[in-house]
């Protein structure tokens, strides 16, 4: 928008992939394989400089991070979140901070653990905002189109103004989305499952008659 650069929304296409995953549980093995292989390709490309193309590097980084997250979800019952492990990872990051290649490999492989730890373990007053509503999904989905829209109408906007403006606009949309779209839709989840079973039995009975 406003220039010749093409920008694709990774947020939106990965939603389609997530929905496909939820509908087909046999994709777990494939997602685990993709998580490992994409991360290995990303790390090998960085260490051995197989390609210096920004498009390839960005594609490898995105697929690696996405499939690591998908793999973590699949293995959620096996991943143990511990402050000791989190501290050890932080110490490892500090030790390797001056060694670019080693730090890159360790950081890319283990940063997901710190993200999960910071997301799930903190408790107390820090979680009071959750009582207002779950706006995280809306922030995730709407951030990209909001940022692109702002960039289209304000081509010379500074990074700071983009950050503040896009955050406030996205938060407002996420709040509306949660209260008027997402929350009502979640309440209909049980009804949808019940209707799906009825429709499935109906078509099954018609197939048997034929």
Describe this structure as you would to a colleague:
The chain is mainly alpha-helical. It folds into three domains: 10-78; 80-122, no CATH class; 129-210, no CATH class. 75% of the residues lie in helices and 0% in strands. The chain contains eight helices and no strands. Helix 4 (83-95) packs antiparallel against helix 5 and helix 6 (136-153) crosses helix 7. The longest helix has 29 residues, at 159-187. The radius of gyration is 21 Å and the shape is globular. The mean pLDDT is 78.
Count of DSSP E strands? 0
Q: Distance N terminus to C terminus? A: 55 Å
Number of domains: 3
Largest sheet: none
* Shape annotation: globular
Which whole number gives the mean pLDDT? 78
- Which percent band covers the strand fraction? under 5%
Number of helices: 8
Poorly predicted tracts of residues: none
Helix percentage: over 70%
Q: Return the string of H and E elements.
A: HHHHHHHH
- Radius of gyration (Å): 21 Å
């Amino acid at each position: 928008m406003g220039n010749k650069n093409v920008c694709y929304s990774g947020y939106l296409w990965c939603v389609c992939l997530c929905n496909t995953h939820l509908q087909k549980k046999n994709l777990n093995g494939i997602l685990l394989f993709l998580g490992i292989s994409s991360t290995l390709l990303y790390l090998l490309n960085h260490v051995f400089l197989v390609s210096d193309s920004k498009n390839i590097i960005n594609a490898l980084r995105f697929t690696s991070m996405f499939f690591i997250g998908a793999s973590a979800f699949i293995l959620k019952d096996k991943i143990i979140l511990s402050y000791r492990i989190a501290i050890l990872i932080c110490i490892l990051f500090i030790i390797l901070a001056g060694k670019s290649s080693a730090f890159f490999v360790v950081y890319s492989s283990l940063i997901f653990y710190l993200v999960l730890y910071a997301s799930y373990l903190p408790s107390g007053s820090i979680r009071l905002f959750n009582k207002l509503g779950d706006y995280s999904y809306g922030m995730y989905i709407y951030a990209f189109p909001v940022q692109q829209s702002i960039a289209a109408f304000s081509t010379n906007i500074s990074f700071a103004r983009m950050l503040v403006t896009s955050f406030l606009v996205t938060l407002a949309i996420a709040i509306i989305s949660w209260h008027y779209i997402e929350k009502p839709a979640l309440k209909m989840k049980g009804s949808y499952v019940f209707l799906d079973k009825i429709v499935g039995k109906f078509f099954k009975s018609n197939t048997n008659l034929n």
